[in-house]
Design goal:
Elements: H1 5-17, H2 21-34, H3 39-51, H4 55-68, H5 73-85, H6 89-103, H7 108-111
Length: 115
């Protein structure tokens, strides 16, 4: 008996919410392989990678999200944070500025952590 995509998605979210980001990333990765056009799913995968310190993988997914949805302000914010965590501060600045400008949240968005 195979599980439906919805059941596997719900399970991945449970792991994510429980802060078991490595397991969540594995499950989201499998889902993204099946549904590559789902930008929201890719963003969840990127977040799981980010929180589990798989920064290169997070960066790759975030760049793919931004290729598909260039105005995704949260993806810009998380990409900026991901680049900062890799000590690539100069590369992070444009993404952080875009996120701030697009979200309209002002400098508060720049000082918050990427949740």
């Amino acid at each position: 008996m195979t599980e439906t995509t919805a059941v596997r998605y719900d399970r991945a979210l449970l792991y994510f919410d429980a802060k078991d980001y490595i397991t969540a990333a594995r499950l989201f990765h499998d889902l993204v392989a099946e549904l590559p056009e789902d930008v929201a799913l890719r963003l969840l995968l990127a977040r799981a990678y980010y929180h589990s310190a798989q920064l290169r993988r997070a960066e790759a997914e975030l760049r793919e999200v931004l290729t598909r949805d260039p105005v995704a302000d949260y993806a810009h914010l998380l990409l900026g944070r991901t680049l900062q965590r890799q000590s690539r501060h100069a590369e992070a600045v444009p993404h952080l500025r875009l996120a701030e400008a697009m979200s309209g949240a002002g400098s508060a968005a720049m000082s918050e952590t990427a949740d």
